[in-house]
Amino acid sequence: MQQTQSTTIMKVSMIKAFSDNYIWAISSNASQNMALVDPGDANVCIEFIEQQQLQLSSILITHHHADHVGGISKLVEYCKNKQWPLTIYGPESESIPHCDVALNDSHTVKLADLGFEFSIIDLPGHTSGHIAYLSHDNLFCGDTLFSGGCGRLFEGTPSQMLSSLEKLSALPERTHVYCAHEYTQANLNFALTVEPCNSELVHYYNQVLQKREQGIATIPTSIMLEKKINPFLRSHEPSLMTSASEYSEVNVGDKLKAFTIIRAWKDNF
């Protein structure tokens, strides 16, 4: 996936890790340097770096969970042995190993060597200090928004997560969404239970089945698509409120109540 930002071209490459994690490698035509987003596994990252003959200069962390930060220490040592300068960015309210620059949504990250600038978006919900990185039309959102789903509420409240998802929903529809897991098929199984008459969702589900049968990734997705098919971006819709009411046997008349019920429903699905 390539996007033009001024005179530089961003290349986003997928590095698969563990059973279903995606680590994102960001490079450009401006240099041989690169950045990693949420490197939970150092070994697959080092393999990628050496295969592509790139130099790691930055690590962008969205939140503190081990499958997102577990590779940092080994990558720091790797870069030290190579004598490569390395800067690690992460959320200011979470404990991130080796973090050099602590961020909140008043900050921007300028990766001058790559020619890109990222806006920071605070996204509490999955964890209390979760952040995302947005550059041009590319969103790196960790475990907040998935295709067809959203992250579990380990530390935040339903209200916080709904607010975070509404921030992402308000982004331009062309925005590419680079989340950190291949959860799409399982998410859509649930989404179809909640909103079975959504024709856009049915069509997307069939596309996803074909992709996964062929071992093809479903990520990146887009804000435009997620607004059509993702129940957690659609809690304001009457169809979602009806499903929430039927599931909970309580009359649901507002989006926060619908979201709260649907999130709890997914936890037990």
TrEMBL record:
It is an enzyme of class 3 (hydrolase). Keywords: Hydrolase, Metal-binding, Zinc. SMART domains: Lactamase_B. Its cofactor is Zn(2+). GO terms for molecular function: hydroxyacylglutathione hydrolase activity; metal ion binding. Zn(2+) 2 binds at residues 67-68, 143, 181. It catalyses: an S-(2-hydroxyacyl)glutathione + H2O = a 2-hydroxy carboxylate + glutathione + H(+). Monomer. PANTHER family: HYDROXYACYLGLUTATHIONE HYDROLASE (PTHR43705), HYDROXYACYLGLUTATHIONE HYDROLASE GLOB (PTHR43705:SF1). Thiolesterase that catalyzes the hydrolysis of S-D-lactoyl-glutathione to form glutathione and D-lactic acid. Belongs to the metallo-beta-lactamase superfamily. Glyoxalase II family. This is Hydroxyacylglutathione hydrolase. It comes from Cognaticolwellia beringensis. The gene is gloB.
